Amino acid sequence: MLASDIENSALKIAYYADDFTGATDTLATAARAGLRTLLFLGLPTTAQLERAGPLDCLGIAGAARAMTPAEMQSELEPVGRLFAALDAPVIHYKTCSTFDSAAHIGSIGAAIQILRPHAGNALVAVVGGQPNLRRYCVFGNLFAGAGKDGAISRLDRHPTMRQHPVTPMHEADLRLHLAQQGLKHVSSIAYPDYEQGDDALDRQLAALLAQGPDAVLFDVADAAHLAPVGRLIWQHAQRRRLLTAGPSSVVQALTAHWQTMPARREAAVAPAKGPVLVLAGSLSPMTALQVGAATSYRHVVLDAARLAKDRDYLMHMGGQIAARLGEGDHVLACTSGQGSAANAGTPADARALAQACGELLACVLKTVPVQRLGIAGGDTSSHAVQALDAWGLAYQAQLAPGVALCHLHSDNYSLDGMEIMLKGGQMGADTLFEELLRGTAQMSFGA
């Protein structure tokens, strides 16, 4: 596809998210900052790009976090070619805010090596930390809160991330973490350096780039650090297309630097019209609390091991869920047992369960379409949405920091316009699933 095929001269950022929940967080971040933004659920066609119209920010939701490096090559190479053809100044490889990854699965290092040739800038900017999600990068080391109000822990001591079922995080220093994924020389700029003048900071970065690093890591320990990081990224992107990696704080940094577009006034989420379906395929401790607090739903417990391996069981449980929705009940279907994502022994086990959850969801919605849907779990969200006959997501409202309510774009009349919430395991308050059903009072969240 040639750049001349698409009239999109306003495009500033093109991002690929390594899972669907993170993709919607970046979608919400850009939309709430006033950027015209659309998230595609796969590599968009020319017709879909034309239907989207002029955009400031274009996203693609992917599942690279659950892929091997060889699979990532097949997934990301066409993405890099498209982003280059669209002539986006900033290419953003959107990672989880806790940088979930390993050399063998979801490698951020592999993603950078695949996408970098499509950018060409000497600077590959890695942004650590996202303060509005209680993620902080200090002197290259990542710290994260556990749940909404839990204590802040260094990542390798984090109660959830240190025992992640697929990519346990044993290294908090992101420079060393990325070195294990093939980026042997990652330079860094620490947050106290932002206090110096712009000229001095420019010289510091130029000196680092003269050493030919694989990437430069930028600390973010406070929202005030975003604008100087955004200035450096945008300044270099104006010279030549630039690759960034990191969470939604990449877009936050750029918009903090621009400060030119009117922020979107945050709307309340209205109560759901009709039955609500929630599918929780990964019971992180926070999601488990949310499931326990969801008293307005009929709970359906799914045997994870059987769901992943037994199609007859999958179809039977899909029929049960559809029947209860058809009776007007709100339904929360959640996995449990030794085969659940929280206890999956291998990446293959986790992927098989996530794919089965996607097939289950498609089965249910073909029988009983719903107007509002929630999906919990990064890999579950990725595979479940991919199983739907849909091509895009647009931002609608914010349910919690890191949790957006979107509406679906589909050529299937029964799915087009469906409201959908995708959430990562650690995101949202205990009452999130209840708020998805009952709606919220008018809210205002900081960027």
From TrEMBL:
One Pfam family here: NBD_C
Domain Four-carbon acid sugar kinase N-terminal span(s) in chain numbering: 13-254
UniProt KW Glycosyltransferase keyword: no
Keywords per UniProt: ATP-binding, Carbohydrate metabolism, Kinase, Nucleotide-binding, Transferase
Domain Four-carbon acid sugar kinase nucleotide binding: 277-433
Record-level Gene Ontology MF annotations: ATP binding; kinase activity
Keyword match Flavoprotein: no
Source superkingdom: Bacteria
Family that this chain belongs to: Belongs to the four-carbon acid sugar kinase family.
Protein's name in the database: Four-carbon acid sugar kinase family protein
